[in-house]
Design brief:
single chain; 7-stranded mixed beta sheet; 5 helices; binds S-adenosylmethionine
Length: about 210
């Protein structure tokens, strides 16, 4: 798939683009949703999932931790109230709608990163296992919100840097499959590459418990 964005992000985000292309969202929404369905993104980022959902006549709902990103997402949405500025780790405390489909790319972590990705890298972390457990807890609550036929997709890459490889995609697949039934993966080959050390990522598919 072409790793292409229709617009470059405004400053100060332009050098920090972690978004996937709208084409990826369109492909999954065409396959797994119908007009009117509720599409959820717990790590909304720059709002790709939510804005494509609206463009395709789906309802959008999401959470983003970073206030500046929230303001940007809201400026892109027809229904800015669809985005909660908040913390996915507190998902169980929010009044959220039932979910027909969820697609996200979580904040990534190398095994030895010192910061906590689930605090948007703004706080010291408690290690890789705590990060995976944090994601598990978030998906435990997402599972409770999923409608019977809902599908959850997590887009993630393994990470390579000079010190070695963190098999993040496989570790997240294993962690979340303890919470939600794993239905397999879609491998996406990116041109040009994302720069995480690989030219492809995995879209991990799960269903309701
Ligand atoms: C990889 S980005 C998602 C990019 C998105 N798929 C897109 O295309 O724009 C992950 C996002 O998760 C946010 N984030 C990190 N911790 C969070 C948390 N606890 N709750 C909600 N959002 C969080 C980060 O600020 C970041 O914007």
């Amino acid at each position: 798939m072409r790793n292409e964005q229709p617009e470059t992000l405004p400053e100060p985000f332009a050098h920090d683009d972690v978004s996937y292309p709208p084409g990826l969202v369109r492909a999954f929404l065409s396959e797994y949703t119908h007009p009117g369905d509720l599409v959820f993104d717990p790590f909304a980022g720059f709002g790709t999932t939510l804005s494509v959902a609206e463009e395709m006549g789906r309802r959008a709902s999401g959470i983003e931790y970073d206030p500046q990103r929230c303001a940007y997402i809201r400026s892109r949405l027809r229904h800015p109230e669809a985005l909660l500025q908040g913390d996915a780790r507190l998902l169980s405390t929010y009044a959220l709608p039932r979910i027909d489909f969820t697609l996200t790319s979580p904040p990534y972590m190398h095994r030895d990163d010192p910061e906590d990705p689930l605090a948007a890298y703004q706080e010291p972390g408690r290690g890789y296992d705590a990060y995976l457990s944090g994601l598990q807890e978030i998906y435990r609550h997402i599972g409770l919100l999923m409608n019977e036929t809902a599908v959850a997709v997590i887009e993630v890459s393994n990470l390579k840097k000079p010190g070695g490889v963190t098999p993040l995609a496989w570790d997240i697949a294993q962690a979340i499959s303890q919470i939600l039934p794993f239905q397999g993966e879609v491998v996406v080959h990116w041109e040009p590459t994302y720069g995480y050390g690989y030219d492809h990522s995995y879209c991990l598919l799960f269903t309701r418990p």
